[in-house]
Amino acid sequence: MKVFFDTVGCRLNQAEIEQLATEFRSAGHTIAESAVEADLVVINSCSVTAAAASDSRQKVRQAEHAGCREIIFTGCLATLEPDESRALPGIRDVVPNAQKMNIAHVFAGVPELYELEPLARIPLPGLRKRTRAFIKVQDGCDNLCSFCVTRIARGKGVSMARERVLRDVTAAVDGGTREVVLSGVHLGSWGRDLGGGESLPDLVEYLLKNSPIERVRLSSTEPWDLDERFFELWQDERMCRHLHLPLQSGSASVLKRMIRRTNPEAYRHLVDKAREMIPGVAITTDIITGFPGETEDEFIESLEFVKEMNFAGGHVFRYSPREGTAAAKIPGRVHGKVAIERGRLMREAIRRSQAAFLEAQIGAEHEVLWETTEEVGSDRIKIRGLTSNYLQACAVARNNRHGKIDRVQVTGVKGLELETKIIRN
Q: Counting C-beta atoms within 10 Å of the first and last residue's C-beta, which end of the chain has fewer, N or C?
């Protein structure tokens, strides 16, 4: 059977479809490059925003339009809206998050995970082929952020045993992976439910000590989970110099309504500490504009704080109410042109700081993991990849460097991409 995997949303969703693909492969099934050639399509959905939910439904329609009538719909939207999801075209089954990782066993006759022989975790084919592997180390969340529907869809925080994580990392390396991205809903909470007193730095140190992985990257980490010991991890050069620290708002009063366990002063201190202990670190973030009750003064406070932080990039979301969250009941919805304009101003602020960060890289040297190639002449290949600090880079090479790591020097910036030349491979 040919199976195509697709996903919307976070890196954890990507990690899950990579793991599911490995399990299907273990039973002799083939991973398809597109829905057109697939006998079965598995879609891992998202519901963090109204737009993400819409994109998830659109994935189903695209698969059905491509001719597939056997679609398994799972993930957060499938969990929160099971009846509506079953009504989508081509749906064979709707699987909630709690049963997601049993899909291969239930629907394709794959043995239980503990019965499987270790198998190299090769990249997904087609558009999702990567030289990085997304590794699920944690699921669920015990925070109470008032806007977040993901914690409702995912349930309480659960940590993967470090031996299980090591096995997944090793399988990824065996499949040709040069970099792993440790992923979770609340990544920084890893270990709290295991009862051994371990935390995320213990897991990372264990992986660095016991696996040959060349680069380790962390997905989003909440700012209140990080202490000085966390930053000491970067004494190992294999740690990628990028931190995604969701702020959500630069207004102290809005953060209180969001029930975020931080404030602008604490966040500023954290960013200063990160930049002190991790030279060259790129810090990116998430921002919500138009949160219920957000006044003009609160928005300006948030905007000015974001400008002060000089982020290397970020995502800006206009608030959308999600059923079941506390924020959906807060009065004072920001509507229309006001909400649109606030989002535009915030995106412009982050675009400016991102551009400045990129310009500051000119002349600097970076290690780049090449992910895509494009022929531009009979003896030249355009290659693109990621620096350690999560910047897009391109270069021209005479041979295919896909999956290789090269030392480059930045010669210029074009758009949001560094132009580089290879100085050592």
A: C
Q: How far apart are CA 161 and CA 81, in angstroms?
A: 30
* Domains contained in the chain, number: 2
With respect to residue 103, please indicate whether it lies within any of the assigned structural domains: yes
Helix H or strand E segment including 267: helix 264-277
The beta strands (E) that lie in 65-144 are given as 71-75, 91-95, 132-136, 138-139
Domain boundary among 83, 105, 124: 124
pLDDT digit string, tens, across residues 69-103: 899 999 999 999 999 999 999 999 999 999 998 99
How do residues 29-47 score in pLDDT, each as one tens digit? 999 999 999 999 999 999 9
Range of the domain at 52: 1-124
DSSP 389: T
Ranges in the chain, pLDDT < 50: 113-118, 127-128
Whichever domain contains 415, its CATH number is 2.40.50
Alpha-carbon separation of residue 317 from 47, 339, 406 (angstroms):
13, 10, 35
| pTM, to two decimals | 0.91
- Asked whether residue 208 is domain-assigned, the answer is no
CB 125 within 8 A of CB 173: no
